[in-house]
Amino acid sequence: MTDRKRIVVGVAGGIAAYKACTVVRQLTEAGHEVKVVPTESALKFVGAATFEALSGQPVHTGVFESVHEVPHVRIGQQADLVVVAPATADLLARAVAGRADDLLTGTLLTARCPVLFAPAMHTEMWFHPATVDNVAMLRSRGAVVLEPASGRLTGADTGPGRLPEAEEITTLAGLLLERPDALPYDLSGVKALVTAGGTREPLDPVRFIGNRSSGKQGYAVARVMAQRGAEVTLVAGNTSGLIDPAGVNVVHIGSATQLKEAVTKLASEANVLVMAAAVADFRPAQVATAKIKKGASEPSSIELIRNDDVLADAVRARAEGQLPNMRAIVGFAAETGDENGDVLFHARAKLKRKGCEMLVVNAVGEGKAFEVDHNDGWMLGADGTETALEHGSKTLMASRIVDAIGALLNG
Which residue range or ranges hold the DNA/pantothenate metabolism flavoprotein C-terminal domain (predicted)? Predict the structure, then answer.
């Protein structure tokens, strides 16, 4: 997010209101002009002075402050994005009803920009038919209502209804600023299996053979698919401490063998498999039970054996009728050019070998693809289509990839 935008951060009255402070800080540090509009109840959890210090702007809750500026109309009209975090069950109900009894609900009525609600409430409230209907109504009107995270709630309770982490909220806010139509709720009923991150192949209890994949692109795909309505399971290798996406079932693994076992177990229920993980092609033939030490016993070489090709195995299993629900398989490839051909030359050959519907290709190198927040590449289709993915955030790239996945499923 490099262009300065006007963002309204609405804060409703729930215990998660304290997390809105981090949302405001992250958006202001990204260079945006942030206006905080809390409800009266929110100020019982976080004082106005805190929001004013973080945003650099005065904070009001009612429609009768600075009346000459008509704030209940002007704030919404001028906004490039409205983020409500937390959005309580009460706030969602008032938004659906079109209430305008405070500055925040008035702003929601006048905003014509993307609106992002980040719900936070107890599990029973989230699953109550009234809230379910309200969320569906807001989505039908074009608002983005995030799936909440699952975890510790107020007191000893745990379950779905936890506010997503601030980084996830601001990441998706940034996506909507880059691409306002990036999060339609169009994948409801789709079961997706996504893999992400690099595998680590153990050599001894201390050392391993690995790769530079951070898992950011696969996490972004899983996050976008979940927020577009899919039921997502994410098989995650080494992901450098990334935040697990809200609304996603995450299975953590270490090695390529463990990844294969997880995919084999979970693929039978999935409608789409997205193999974004950087799976090691080889592993040590022998794994030492004790640390290999320098000296007379140190090996002169390490024998490697080939790992199974999880992507090709999935394509084969589907062809043999073992994956009756699978409608699309998407692979990823990190490529470099060589004396035999460029990146696309090798990618086209890989797509043909793998037999999947689509292959997402990245050119790798110093500062490219791995361990960075931005990316570019191509989407190659089994039907011969080739679509360039312009340079942008990995979340923006994920939204384009998910568009293509949606087209495959619909086709």
Answer: 187-406
